[in-house]
Amino acid sequence: MIRILSATQGKPTRWFAGMFSVLLLLLIALAVFFFERKLQNEVKFEVASQLKHNTAIVAEQFERRYRADLSYLHFLKDTPPFPGIARALKNNGVDPQGNQPIELWKTRIATIFKSLIHNNPELLQLRIIMPDGREFVRVDRLRGKVARVSEAKLQDKSHKDYVQETLDLSEEMHFASRISLNFENNKVQRPFTPVLRIAMPLFDADNDLFGLLVLNSSARQLIELLESDSAEYFLTDHQGHYIYGPEPVFHYTRDLAKPRLFDDDFLLHSTAKGRVDGVIKHGTQSMLVAIQQELNSGYQGPGHEMFITAIAPPQQAEALLNERRLSSYVLLTVVVLVLLLFMGGIVLFYRNRERYQEDKVVYESIIDGADEPIVSFDTQLNVQTYNSASLLIFPSLAASERQHKITDLVALPMDRLQEAVTYFKHEDGPKDTDWYESYMLQDQIRHVNFKVSPVRGPGNQLVGITLFGRDTTKEKLSEQQVKSANEGLERLVQERTGELEAEKAKAVKASAVKSAFISTISHEMRTPLNGILGTLNLIRREPLTKKQLSYLEMTETSSSTLASLINDILDLSKIEAGKLELEQEPLNPISVVEHVVTSISLKAYEKQLNLVVDVADIDFIELVGDAGRIKQVVFNLVSNAIKFTSKGCVCVRGQTTQEAGKVFLSVTVEDTGVGIDKNNHHKIFSAFTQEDSGVSAEFGGTGLGLSICKNLCELMGGEIGFESQKNIGSKFYFTLPFALDTAKSRPHENTLGGRRFELHVVDTRERSFLSHVINKYGGTVVEHDGEFVVADHDNPHINTLAETPMYERTIVLYSEFTHQNVAEGFLAKLVKPIRLGAFLSVFDQNAIAKMLKNQHQVQVPNVQCNERNDLGGATVMIVDDNQINREVARGILQGIHANVVACQSGHEALSALLNFEKNDQPVFAVLMDCNMPTMDGYQATRLIREGKGGESFRHLPVIAMTANAMSGERERCLAAGMDDYVTKPIQPKLLFDALTKFKSFQQPKKPPVAHMPEHPPSQTTTQNNAGEEVEQPPVASGEVLDIDGTIARLQGDSELYLQICMLFYNKAPQKLLSLKEQCNKQDHAQVKQISHALRGQSGDIGAQRLTQLLAKLEEGASHQDGSEYSALIESIEAQYLVLEQVLQEAVFKTSSAVRQGSES
Fold first, then answer.
1. Which domains, from first to last, does the chain contain?
2. SMART domains, from UniProt (predicted)?
3. Cα–Cα distance measured from residue 1128 to residue 1133, given in angstroms and rounded to the nearest whole number
4. Among 1009, 1063, 1057, 1056, which Cα is nearest to 591's?
């Protein structure tokens, strides 16, 4: 048997190459390491040597000056006037030798002084100072002239250090000062004159001190020696005061009383021998090469030492180091390249050798493993090689080890092979030849097809032939069997065809019965199940023990799970039966994705998860498809992500792409949850299947949600997939196609106009989303010096902005849970998850309108958008602390093309108006809620009239919105400065009439109005989240809940109605409990406030009877009358339970496919 070359045979070469590479890299690393150390030491030494040389030259110049000045003093001391002056001073001013007066000697010595100063330009002053410090004779160089100073201008210098120290010196000793500025009359002489002072004591013949000889010389030329481009020179005194440096700030700090020392700027580094070899500049970590040398003036007195410190600029050392590196590394590179070429040759040789051996063994193995016999001959027809299959046809090949000849192969005709050899010897002969043979082998007839091909060597010379054989015995037998079998099959096919048609009819009937049964039973189960849920809500209002409450919660969970299962089974049944119809209506993909994420955000924030929705890359505002089914898929994926994530973030991203005449909408939902094990990926989209039994036990669910999502995506022509890692997180994504010709793209505008933003946001995904939006819409994200700040509400950075102008340029991000803790006065406050339009509208009030332009909306016939009430994009501000009220007003105003800005308090409204005025943006009107905490509508309106919201908005129309319809309320609103008054629940016609009065206040450019088909006035419909159009039940027109009238009031926006009903359903129970508690306490103020808020909210959803009861309770609280509190609370609770049942039956049931979407 031929051995096949294994994969490990190539390892020696790879091992050798790998070891050589590692060794080479190690050698290179070591060489670079030692080269770098050697080069850095050499460069440091060379730079230090150059500094030392230059410093020594400068020091030598200083010492020469000291010696020159000292020689002048020795010369002067030996002139005749000095002994004469000494004798005259002891003889009452007359020299006894020659009887000459002292004035004569003073004149002579002054003449000598002038001559010496005149002939030596560096000399500035020569003086004789008496032992008491008074100047005796003084000659100055002033403004280029040399002159003796008059007796009247001679000064007392007894306080000077050079006078005091020189008086203590003995004969032949001298004083040398440090360089300092010249002082006259205790003031620095200007322009600055750097001076060196040399002084020596004068003794008479009796060795008595009679005066001091002082010489002042200019140090300007010495200072100029310190001005160099090759190094920075610092001249300092013994205490580190700067005398001179490369910048004016280092000049004469002691004389000019500047509190700056050398140690304040630099830290000296010394060798073990105490020699300075470097400095570290404070505030940096790098050491600079430096040399320090003391100047030798010959004077040993303390306090007048001077030091020169030379510091080499870092670029000088770096340039020299790079120059040395270039030459060193070029050599190293050449050596490495030579080694690499050598190594490459060796590796190539061994690799080719291994490949040859491998190919040879592989080819032999292939031939030996072939099922067909292969035998090779030389030109003399001697057998050369054969494979194992040849033994089946030519058993004689195994008879002996000798070389076989053609005659040993009894089944082969020798004449045919010899003829083939003859043909193949000609270069233009046939390429191969074949024939068919039948012969007896072991008492059986064998059918074989033979084929012969030439084997040619160099020069195309024939070196042998190869015989290929194929045993066709089984094929011949199979042909006979197939022929007879076909005749029998034809008869069986005819019989089975009839049976299958009958079975198909039965299966179709059974499928129809199953679908009908599932549809019927699921609908029939809903009615008692809703009764159970309603009863459970009634029980929850009763006093319960902890054990009973636990049982109640278990029952509610089981009931909700059963409701979810029923909805999922119904959807699955429709899909399997092929009866699920898809709508093809215009939809806004941005609104679809953001609406679903926002509606479920409460669940995320209850678990303290961060939720991010990023739709910045959705470039279309209208596509044609089934919005309900898209929402159902998004809802399922997002709710799953929230369910299976205990901490971290859920991020939803949407984007659109174009390809081949289609628009593809892609949505990705990514979480940091538990993840899915790789071994379970294959079953995630199967119906009634979860990752494992533990998932259902821990998180619940039926395993239908993802299966439905997959079926819906495929029905819409798209696809869905996921990526997941256990304990890391999951990413689900789907892509849906839409027609390009019916799509409407979103205009790309430079909304942010180059503004700079600082981001102080903790979550990385949220920060990434904001950066993406800012950059895409023309802004820039910076670390510092931004024009605007975007920050989390609890970010500590906000506190640092409180006393700065940036406080009013800050956008605060918060969730509904934290709103009560957010301060006022910011530029804007945005609710998480952040909507794209909400962020952009801070800078462009028309941003939301542009983003939702062309969105499909229904116009009801009661109040149509016409020329009279169309606001044409004008900005209307809604000020209300209640989210339901804001959403209702927003929905009504968007129907007449208003650009809506919502504020949650009076403080926030004033800040927003100031921002509008600052940006020169008009506001059409303000809808002001009267009763709000902190600052109510009355106070906010008065402040607007006082100009606190901007001078340009003093007369801005303010329309009151209040649920208080009692007598005198209208007059109170008008007295506070409001212009008009509408009651809650808001009637669109009354609101439009009020707004129309003020259209002359500001009339912005009117955008085009998209007119859509109207619903018939006789029937009001709403669309559930599954995309199904459902007729409202007859209970809507009753006294409990006026659904028809309320939807008409909302301009036919049934989706908005569902949203405010959900908000009311979630928040009302807690407020009712609080109301009951305050009634029991007889706290009339709180009862009035809570009942007023609840009355407005219940009116917004059309709960007429509950609104009436709350109005009675509010009226009693206003009159401080709590006698009917107990009865009214009981009635309100009972009415709310009825309303809750109606909401579940008539409103929420129609959207349960999405609201209670099953999760896998």
1. 51-314 (3.30.450.20), 370-471 (3.30.450.20), 582-745 (3.30.565.10), 766-844 (no CATH), 857-1005 (3.40.50.2300), 1024-1160 (1.20.120.160)
2. HATPase_c (SM00387), HisKA (SM00388), REC (SM00448)
3. 9
4. 1056
Token pair, residue 860, equals 């009801």
Q: What is the pLDDT of residue 1004?
A: 38
Run of H or E including 118? helix 102-119
End-to-end CA separation in angstroms for the chain = 55
Which among 898, 910, 912 has a CA at the least distance from the CA of 870? 898
Alpha carbon distance 717, 732 (integer Å): 17
State how far the Cα of 249 lies from the Cα of 232, in Å rounded to an integer. Answer: 14
| Residue 1093 region by backbone torsions, left for phi larger than 0, else alpha for psi between -120 and 50, else beta | alpha
Partners of 424 in the beta sheet? none
In this structure, the chain runs to a length of 1160
Q: What is the pLDDT of residues 618-645, one digit of tens each?
A: 999 999 998 888 988 998 899 889 988 9
- State which amino acid sits at residue 279: V
Q: Output DSSP code: residue 1123.
A: T
DSSP state letter for 800: H
* Residue entry with tokens 């250090």: 161
Alpha helices in 607-703 (DSSP H): 627-643, 693-699
Least confident segment among 310-319, 917-926, 1032-1041: 1032-1041
Residue 440 above 60 pLDDT? no
Chain centroid to CA 245: 47
Cβ(913)–Cβ(890) under 8 Å? no
Phi, psi for residue 798 in degrees, rounded to 5:
-60, -35
pLDDT digits (tens, 9 = 90+) for 1093-1152: 888 888 888 888 888 888 889 888 888 888 888 888 888 887 887 787 778 766 765 444
Neighbours of 509 (CB within 10 A): 10
**What whole-number distance in Å separates Cα of residue 908 and Cα of residue 267?**
54
In sign, the C-alpha dihedral spanning 63, 68, 73, 78 is positive
Alpha carbons 157 and 66: distance in angstroms, whole number: 22
pTM across the whole model? 0.38
783-838: per-residue pLDDT in tens? 988 899 999 888 887 777 777 788 788 888 887 665 455 666 778 888 888 888 88
Return d(Cα 287, Cα 235) in angstroms, integer: 20
**Can you give 464-520 as a three-state secondary structure string?**
EEEEEEEECHHHHHHHHHHHHHHHHHHHHHHHHHHHHHHHHHHHHHHHHHHHHHHHH
Are 736 and 665 spatial neighbours (Cβ–Cβ below 8 Å)?
A: yes
Distance CA 1095, CA 732 (A): 43
Residue 99 tokens read as: 């009887």
Q: State the Cα angle at 935 between 932 and 937, rounded to 5°.
A: 60
When mean pLDDT is compared across 263-267, 409-413, 773-777, 1018-1022, the lowest value belongs to: 1018-1022
DSSP 938-996: HHHHHHHHTTTT-GGGTT--EEEEES--STTHHHHHHHTT-SEEEESSPPHHHHHHHHH
Residue the block writes with tokens 């010379």: 461
Signed CA dihedral, 618, 623, 625, 629: sign only: positive
Q: Rounded to the nearest 5°, which phi and psi values hold at 667?
A: -125, 130
Q: Which residues pair with 721 in a beta bridge?
A: 733
SS3 for 1066?
Answer: helix
d(CA 843, CA 1103): 38
The CA distances from residue 761 to 332, 765, 786, in Å, are 49, 9, 15
927 vs 979: CA distance, rounded Å: 10
More confident residue, 980 or 1: 980
In the chain, helix, strand, coil percent, each to 5? Answer: 50, 20, 30
